Amino acid sequence: MEGSRYKAIGVVKSVIIHSFLMSVALTCLFPLFWMIRCSLMTNQTVFTDKTLIPRDLHFSNYIQAWVDGGFGIYFLNSMVYTVSVVVGIVLVSSLAAYAFSRLKFPGKNFFFGMFLAAMMIPLPGSFVPMYVLMTKLGLANTRIGYILCMISVGLSVSILLLKTFFDKLPHDMEDAARIDGCGRLGIWWHVALPLARPALAVIVIFNSLNVWNEYILAYLLLNDTSLMPLQRGLMVFQGTYSVDYPILMSGLTIAALPIILIYLFMQQHIIKGLTEGATVQ
Amino acid sequence: MSVVATNPTHLKPRTLIIQDNLKNLSFIMPAVILFSIFYIYPFFEIFRLSLQDWNGISPDRSWVGLANFAELMKDKVWWTSVWHASYITLIALTFQNALAFALALACDRQIRMKKFYQVIFFLPPVLSEVVVGLIWQWILNAGVQGGQQIGILNYWLVQSGLPGLVNNWLSNPETALTCIAVVHCWKGFGWGFIMLLAGLQTIDHQLYEAAKVDGAGAWSTFRHVTLPMMLPVISVVVILTILGSMQVFVLIKAMVSQGLGYHTEVPVTRILLAMQGTNRFGYACSMGVTFGIILVCLSLLSKTFGSKTKQ
Question: ipTM of this model?
Answer without folding.
Answer: 0.90
